[in-house]
Amino acid sequence: MDTSPEQALILLVDDEADILSVYQAKLEKVGFRVVTASDGAQAIQVAAEKHPDLILMDMKMPVMDGITAQSKLKEDPATKDIKVVFLTAFSDPANPEIDIRTAKEAGALDFIKKGIGLDEFVTKVRGYLAK
Amino acid sequence: MIIAIVVISGTFLILFQNYAENYYQMFTANVINEYQLGDSAAQLTKTYSSLLQNINDPGLLAQYQTDLNAINTAASNLNQTAFSGENASDYERLHNDVSLLEGYIANGVANTKQGDFSQSSNILEQVANTENSIQQDTSNLIVSYVSNSEQEQKNVNATEALARTIETMTIIIMVIGIILLALLFSSRLSKPIMRLAALAETVSAGGPLTTHVNDDLMKMKNEVGSLARSFNRMVLDVEKRIDTRTQELQWERARLLASINSLPLGFLLLDTTGVILLSNRIAQELLPREDATLASLGKLFVPAVDVSEFDRLMRTRQSYELQEAKLGERSFHVMAMPVVIPGADEKDETIGSVFLMEDITKEKALDESKNAFLAIAAHEMRTPLTVIRGNTELLLDEPSVSANTGFKTQVESILRSTVRLLNIVNDFLDVQNLEGGRISLKIEPVDVVALLRDVMRDLSPLVQKKGLAFSVDVLPDLGACILNIDKYRLQQIYINLISNAIHYTESGGVTISFRKEEKYMKVLFGDTGIGIDLEEQSRLFKKFETGRVFMQSKEYGSGLGLYISRFLAHLMGGDLVLEKSEVGKGSVFCLTLPLEGVAKK
To answer: What's the ipTM?
Structure first.
């Protein structure tokens, strides 16, 4: 299978459909293959089925949040090596960093602040895939 | 006693002198009387002889009578007291002889008048014998007197010598007496004075002002008494004056206390060693009961008031401030400033410090609810803004939009405004979190050069779009660049500074260089941009001035970036300053980071 970045499969997870559509559109435009999920539980299911090269996942989501989903992915030998990067809007204003720290300590590669330019977003994604 | 001695010895001397003089006079008179007695006896004998020749001669008879008188006078003039001792019997014999002589002569004269001369030669012989006896006795007496008087003279001289000795002794005794008297007198004078001195000492040593002189001293009629009375008056006067001053001071103190008690702050006045001199009610309530000192009060605050740091600042006449410190459930704004008084020779003296604690619990709660509201509001804006931005960028990617100049301009405008709004929201949230103390550092070893390269790579699309040069200047001898800091926070600073540099530079480029100094790593961010004028420089890092910056930077950011970056640099034990800037030529910002890293919190 061709694993060149532009051929890579990316799983986008967010409960906001508008966010999903923007990132999906951009990533597909630059040549990535994209699958989506709208919560953590769904994300685990899709990841197990499709084995994406990278998961870009929101943190605060209904049903199952990003942190829990990540830890479950890491528990499963089939999915534990998939790179996870969080998309964050600093969901808890009273404690903006706790999630990021926890995520990183649980094995997330990095996080992307929502709201950055799409070009910068793509640059970062390419960077994660190259690692 | 001494006077008695003097009087007695003086009297004695005078009496003795009188006695000696009288004694002399008496003997001298006796010698003269005896001479006269002798002479009178001789004269009477001679007159009797003549009468034998011429009994009827009236001149001779008168002479006879005169001679009788003369011899009687001489005999009665003899002083019996002069005849003492071996001469005691001579007095009687002389008187007997005179009576015999007078009797013989009277008998002879009577016979002669009757013309009877028969007994004449016999009587004459008897007269001559008697006269001879008288002459003999008187001359013997005179000789005896002379020898006696020489003895007497010796006695007198001896007595006089004794008297003089007594006199000398008396003078010596007098002198000694005077000295003794003086001593006695002086001890009577000096004792009370010593007592007065001791009392004065007691008073001046802070003894009670009821220290009065005892009555016995007061009653003394001499100077000591008057001194004692003056002393008592003085003490009373001083007491009165002190009372007046004390009342004035108490009033001043009451006023001062009332003033500081009416302050809506905890107030402590401390001396230079940190001992509390004065405190108001609010401060008293805050001070721990078991140990009401600044040090133990300081420990109750979170973060604690570091008394050693506080001391150092007071000594160097700087202020101390804790914007917010928790004490139990309450929040305080803690301040301290040195109390400086202008001293002599224009040298100011720090006499202590004032420590203030302002209860900001209410303001804090209000501030926090406001912040929380703003944070939530800002957060809720981020997701929609992200969607707007993303879709706008997607639109610009569409060939149909970018080909249409009108569309393109409008969509670009939407994008710019959206980006600006997003930046504002992001910065705003950052400031809220930083100031709210909700930022915790995660300290780990970070390669600060490698991190910079990552950031540069992320930002390279922006640089390329503007056609700028972008370089990192790392000296070969820089060595290891791994510092113990917060990677994410450093990244934030990097992004902020580099984004600014790119934004304000139209031609030329951005150069980042690293330099190691003794304790710090310096990261210099140079650009060839528009530069910052002096007025703007002074406001650059100030949060409250960002409104102006914000208004001026119409197309970029919130203007809070530098404030946030410096805040973060400080959090990590470093600093961020504008190294230099020249309008039209560019600016250099300098970030310093501690080589030792950040102490874990």
So the answer is: 0.85
